[in-house]
């Protein structure tokens, strides 16, 4: 009984060890796809790897030529990717090739895609570092598609609202079906056409007037094109300028004369502004009036006097 238990324990341990070896072998085969092939180590530096993992494929012109062996973070903006490439495929890859991060389809696993470079390059050697280029960022593409989808939704809603407004009772389509409105629109269009015709005729007439002026025809043409008439007009303008200067001089002299008359001490200022002189003149006039009255009374008294009565009679007869 003890021997049977020992044999069962040994059998179980052997089966467990076999399963462990099988799992480890499958893992190694899965992570080292080119385990039994001759390979070459190649490196590339990327700013980001967008989810690339160890064991993912390396492709050249769309053909799997190796796998990703190791991914190392060098800095916050630089990642080193070590790749194993089969020697039979490395013979066709040149040193000027460009490595990019790509996807296996739109939503597939990330991989390293190697593309031929421009010009002629040297054959690929072990531990060589390839140039890198910016790959297709599917996440950014999906974000852009999401924003585009949101914009399409907004545009669709706005188109729906616009269609509803157009089909409403006061919408454009209903208004276009109104015969009265269409008649008004036709009348407005006819008026615009008439205004355009009048504008064209006015432009033609203006062009004709300008042409006549350039050719010396008409009054304006004679003034512009005839040198004799032009000289006369210039002389007339010169005479008018001379007369204007003379009138300006005379007006200035009159202004000075008026200012002198109105200056304190002048006759006009004395007669119009000096109140003392005015009172004196009024007093003299009043005195002359009184003297004249008294003189008339004295003369009448002399005419009645017997001594001068004969003189006044002879003088009256002489006048007759």
Beta-strand residue fraction = 15-25%
Span of the ends, CA to CA = 208 Å
Shape: rod-shaped
- Biggest sheet: strands side by side, in what order? 1-4-3-2-6-5-7
Order of helices and strands: HEEEEHEEEHHHHHHHH
Q: How would you characterize the overall build of this protein?
A:
The protein has 320 residues and is α/β, with parallel strands linked by helices. Among the domains are: 1-31; 38-136; 138-177. The chain is 62% helix and 16% strand. The chain has a 7-stranded mixed beta barrel. Helix 6 (218-225) crosses helix 7. The mean pLDDT is 76.
Keywords:
320 residues; alpha/beta; seven-stranded mixed β-barrel; 7 strands
How would you summarize what this structure contains?
62% of the residues lie in helices and 16% in strands.
How does the SSE layout of this entry go?
Blueprint: H1 2-31, E1 39-46, E2 57-60, E3 63-75, E4 78-86, H2 87-90, E5 98-103, E6 110-115, E7 128-132, H3 138-166, H4 172-176, H5 179-214, H6 218-225, H7 227-262, H8 267-273, H9 275-304, H10 306-319
Parallel strand pairs: 1-7, 2-6, 5-7
Antiparallel strand pairs: 1-4, 2-3, 3-4, 5-6
Helix pairs in contact: 6-7
């Amino acid at each position: 009984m003890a021997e049977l238990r020992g044999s069962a324990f040994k059998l179980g341990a052997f089966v467990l060890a076999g399963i462990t070896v099988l799992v480890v072998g499958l893992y190694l085969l899965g992570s080292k796809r080119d385990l039994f092939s001759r390979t070459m180590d190649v490196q590339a530096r990327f700013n980001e790897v967008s989810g690339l993992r160890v064991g993912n494929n390396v492709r050249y012109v769309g053909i799997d030529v190796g796998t990703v062996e190791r991914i190392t973070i060098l800095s916050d903006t630089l990642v080193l990717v070590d790749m194993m490439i089969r020697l039979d495929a490395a013979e066709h890859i040149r040193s000027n090739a460009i490595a990019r991060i790509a996807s296996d389809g739109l939503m597939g696993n990330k991989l390293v895609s190697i593309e031929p470079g421009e010009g002629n390059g040297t054959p690929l050697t072990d531990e060589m570092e390839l140039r890198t280029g910016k790959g297709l960022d599917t996440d950014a593409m999906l974000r852009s598609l999401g924003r585009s989808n949101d914009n399409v939704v907004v545009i669709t809603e706005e188109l729906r609202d616009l269609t509803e407004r157009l089909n409403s009772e006061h919408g454009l389509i209903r208004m276009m079906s109104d015969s009265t409105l269409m008649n008004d629109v036709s009348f407005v269009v006819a008026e615009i056409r008439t205004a355009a015709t009048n504008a064209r005729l006015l432009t033609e007439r203006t062009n004709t007037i300008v042409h006549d002026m350039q050719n010396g025809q008409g009054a304006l043409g004679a003034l512009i094109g005839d040198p004799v008439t032009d000289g006369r007009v210039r002389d007339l303008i010169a005479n008018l300028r001379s007369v204007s200067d003379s009138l300006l001089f005379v007006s200035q002299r009159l202004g000075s004369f008026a200012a002198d008359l109105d200056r304190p001490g002048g006759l006009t200022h004395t007669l119009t502004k000096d109140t003392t002189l005015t009172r004196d003149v009024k007093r003299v006039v009043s005195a002359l009036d009184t003297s004249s009255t008294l003189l008339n009374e004295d003369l009448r008294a002399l005419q009645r006097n017997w001594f001068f009565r004969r003189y006044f009679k002879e003088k009256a007869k002489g006048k007759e």
